[in-house]
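I'll show a typical protein example:
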Amino acid sequence: MFSDFSTWWSALEMFPKVYWMIAIPFSVFFVIQTIVSLFAGDVDHDLSGHSDASGADDGIPFQFFTIKNMVAFFTIFGWAGIACFNGGIGYGLTITISIVSGIIMMVLMASIFYFVSKLVESGNLNIKNAINKTGTVYIPIPKSRSGDGKIQILVQSSLREIDAITDETENISTGTLVIVTDVLNNNILLVKKA
């Protein structure tokens, strides 16, 4: 196998050799980078040394010159050059197509990460989202606002235990379904029986 590779490599002109020397290592790095992003989360560094995590609350600003984008550029640049050269396209046009293909890939990568970062939820609880939702009493709620209990309620796709009071004239026992009617100043839910 190595003798075939040596023969093939020796027969290549310098121009396609350069493209192969760019395409292979950058492709390997691109695959490793993708696997690491899948399992360890996505943290990217722009070329000024700043880093942004994909879980940032405000999202990531549009970043064109990042390590990830540069790896994508050189990966596509290398393979586009090899494809053009093997297709019989001249040197000048091969270089032009390679550069344009790499830039298109950088724009696509930067756009994808920009728009995906806009989909990230902040994770902060907006207690007002509990109004008109149904929950279950977890700790009994005393009658007529004489004390507070707790309810379990699904708010923002997460089951939460939140303090609650009631205007009902009877205590509300554990397991009773209640509806949230208001949120008071200190983030205590005002509930009534469902």
